[in-house]
Amino acid sequence: MNPLAPRTVARAGALAAVASATALTACGGAGALSRSGYAARADAICQAIAPPGPKPSTAGQAASYARQQAEGRAAALTRLRRLRPPGSISPAVKRFVDASQATVDDFRAMARAAQQNDRAGFALAGLSQAVHAVDRTHAASDAGLTVCGQATRPLPDAALVANADAACRAADQAILARPASARGADVAGLAVLVPTAYPAVLDSLHRLQTLQPNPASEAPWGSFLSVYEQRVRATNDAVTAAHAGDRAGLRAAVSRDGTLAGEESGLAAQLGLELCGTVGALGV
After folding, report:
1. DSSP state, 14?
2. Cα torsion for 152, 158, 164, 165, to the nearest 10°?
3. What is d(CA 38, CA 109) in angstroms, rounded to the nearest whole number?
4. Measured distance CA(284)–CA(281) in Å, rounded
5. Distance CA 251, CA 198 (A)
6. pTM for the full model?
7. Which residues contact 275 (CB under 8 A, 6 or more apart)?
8. Among 49, 76, 100, 203, which residue has the fewest nearby CB atoms (within 10 Å)?
9. What burial class does residue 138 get, using C-beta atoms within 10 Å of its C-beta: 0-12 exposed, 13-18 middle, 19+ buried?
10. What is the pLDDT of residues 133-190, one digit of tens each?
């Protein structure tokens, strides 16, 4: 079978969360650390997290990888939740932990989907994980953390990454929110994709076409955008074939999209994109 795993978001602070909201409301007050003290201790915990390993190439490897991610991040957050942040950053810490809790749930869902050979379910859980990774990054930055939630390597064009992922976010959320009947790569599923997720994908393309990369990112960005445009056309062809009941045309479009998806994922990783290029077939 084809690998199930989408591009892994390279985040040192991708911490699993098992802490409850009740525990978080107690942050601050007597016994709380200073802002700098909290950041130093939290970042030390994040620094000790093992970085992601090689990208899985089989369903079994993907399931094992997702389970290991969930377990490792849960252990890290168990240590983090023992720290008491000052009241000034308690809201940001709560957001960070909430997003991390969602991340653990995403990895567990990815493991279950991989075990069941559920490619669509795995892709959707992977997309959800990517969305929560961005939320976690913003919260960590607001809390003054410099390791937790931050990229493990410098980004070649941080402004481009921020603007591109903002453009893709609405499309990603539309894909996640589309009804279950629209989630299959078959005639029935794609026939309802037009009024749900596809308009948001088109809008994201139009927004991406207006972005200007810096000179160092110009070549990979041009290649990424070209592949992105081809994937949008392939999706349109698949939807058209689905409405016409053309199963051969549908299979051809989905196959073409799958080939492009691998190329797009590699370019997205090169640019450091978090949301664009993270979804499997028929997605951004």
Report:
1. -
2. 40
3. 31
4. 8
5. 18
6. 0.57
7. 130, 131, 134, 164, 165, 168, 169, 172, 284
8. 203
9. middle
10. 778 888 888 999 988 887 555 567 878 888 888 888 877 777 666 555 444 444 555 5
